[in-house]
Amino acid sequence: MKSEWRTGALVVDTDTGRTGRVMDSVGPYLQLRPPGGGREWEADPHRVRPADAAERQRAA
Predict the structure, then answer these.
(1) pTM more than 0.70
(2) E strands along 7-58, which residues?
């Protein structure tokens, strides 16, 4: 399954509540990285949503 999320998109993983940037898709998962850098984690692409304005502001 090819992810419909573009690389660099700022999203929220609804399973964890964490905000991350889409780095890649590997198998059925998205690879997300915290906006300030750090360790990537895997997220189900069906369980992420675009970051809202307040979340984008906090990530800047």
Answers:
(1) yes
(2) 10-13, 18-26, 29-33, 41-43, 48-50
